[in-house]
Amino acid sequence: MGLVISRTKPEDAREILELQKLAYQSEAAIYQDYTIPPLTQTLPEIEAEMQNQVFLKAMADGHIVGSVRAYQQQETCYIGRLIVHPAYQNRGLGRELMGEIEKSFPQARRFELFTGHRSERNLYLYEKLGYQRISRETVSEKLTLIFLEKRGFANSHLPNPESSDDAKN
What is the DSSP letter of 61? Predict the structure, then answer.
């Protein structure tokens, strides 16, 4: 596939926004709502997000075919808008982008993200990557958000309570 994942540049904003609007068509169809934030986001809004968040892009054949964004607040890294061009879905690109964005925040003790309750492919991917469901938030009759979390790399130095001497007694 010849993919290269790297940080975005400000001039990537328009192409990422176009890809986002294409990739989120399937989500809008699931919920029968074409006014979801990824479809209504404007170029100035995404440019502002790029100032405060880490954006990664996946390039193939000179085009952006995937992206993900995140920011850290205290010990939690909040991951948002994993997007993959429909022609590149189900090839492992989402998994690669998630792995790279997590590596971008080595001090995070936990990662958190959310997706819609009917977004079964997203839930499957996130759970396969080690995320666990932690809460739900009803947004409307059509949409309930499922929040998921995963322990971060900063936790890897902590002792495993099951392997401590106290746990053996």
Answer: T
